[in-house]
């Protein structure tokens, strides 16, 4: 074997090594892109800044249903089973709970990409939406804006029932659940009883 032939063989070997490294890098890059794509497709839609408890509904949907709550009765609940409330001083088309109020009473907002909430069984009223003055699209029932309560830490609770005599769990007929005794509904100054 002469010197030129040895140089050519060594050059071919180096090229083959570089091609293998390049091929391995390309395969690893494609695998990373596929993994990231799969993760992006399985992410949950944004709640639009709401602090409403997480939803168990399928991506792209929101369901409002009825739920039995001990001591309160049958009330509306979000798809995670959290009781929904109405502020008695709000009227259809008018939002009063804004600013620091939404930290205590998170509005029920449609997630990004969801156009409407869907009614579960036992809801004769009409679901709708209203645009909030502070941003987001809030779900309504018979025209009244719906909220959750930050003091409810698990599905099936209604700790916000009757706070300051203006916050009530919403019944399937669209009214407020029967108020508790006056002693438990005073609520002090922390319930944002607008």
In short:
With 194 residues, the protein is of the alpha+beta class. The chain has three helices and eight strands.
DSSP helix count? 3
Structural class: alpha+beta
Specify the overall morphology.
Answer: elongated
Radius of gyration from CA coordinates: 28 Å
With strands numbered from the N-terminus, the spatial order across the biggest sheet is 2-1-4
Helix content: 10-25%
Kindly estimate the percentage of residues that lie in beta strands according to DSSP: 15-25%
Task: Summarize the biggest pleated sheet.
Answer: 3 strands, mixed
The number of domains is: 2
Which series of helices and strands comes N to C?
HEEEHEEEEEH
Q: Overall pLDDT, averaged?
A: 75
N- to C-terminal separation? Answer: 96 Å
Tell me the total number of β-strands.
8
Low-confidence stretches: 29-58, 180-190
Provide the fold topology.
Blueprint: H1 3-41, E1 63-69, E2 73-77, E3 85-87, H2 101-104, E4 118-119, E5 127-131, E6 137-141, E7 144-145, E8 167-169, H3 182-185
Parallel strand pairs: 1-4
Antiparallel strand pairs: 1-2, 3-8, 5-6, 6-7
Outline the structure in words.
The protein is of the alpha+beta class. The protein folds into two domains: 1-43; 46-194, no CATH class. It contains three helices and eight strands, in the order H-E-E-E-H-E-E-E-E-E-H. The protein has helices at residues 3-41, 101-104, 182-185; strands at 63-69, 73-77, 85-87, 118-119, 127-131, 137-141, 144-145, 167-169. Strand 1 and strand 2 (73-77) form a beta hairpin. The longest helix is centred in the N-terminal third of the chain and has 39 residues, at 3-41. The radius of gyration is 28 Å and the shape is elongated. Residues 29-58 and 180-190 have low confidence and may be disordered.
